[in-house]
Amino acid sequence: LIASGDFKYCGGYANAFTHVPTEWLLDGGKKNDGSLTLREDLSPDRYCEFVADWIEKGANIVGGCCGTTSDHTRAISQLLALKASPS
Asked: CA 60 to CA 80: how far, in whole Å?
């Protein structure tokens, strides 16, 4: 979760690793020894389910991190376009 102090801007993005090492959390030192594996169940469509939930909860900035691809970004873009179009 990312948020400005006044929560005017609030967003989320996630990586696609099966396990996130403790030292990566908050202000920990980021280390990658190449042994991290990616989740196999986080397709672009599945990732967009999380993105839609973040938006429903008030996020106005969304994206992806390690392990997400341009396909994930494209799916997010399509989701945002659908949400922006009049019903």
From this structure: 10
3-state SS string over the chain?
Answer: CEECCCCCCEEEEECCECCCCHHHCCCCCCCCCCCCCECCCCCHHHHHHHHHHHHHCCCCEEEECCCCCHHHHHHHHHHHHHHHCCC
What is the tens place of the pLDDT at every residue in 11-58? 666 777 777 666 665 444 555 556 667 788 889 999 999 999 988 888
pTM: 0.66
Residues 73/64, Cβ–Cβ less than 8 Å:
yes
The Cα 73–Cα 56 span in angstroms is: 18
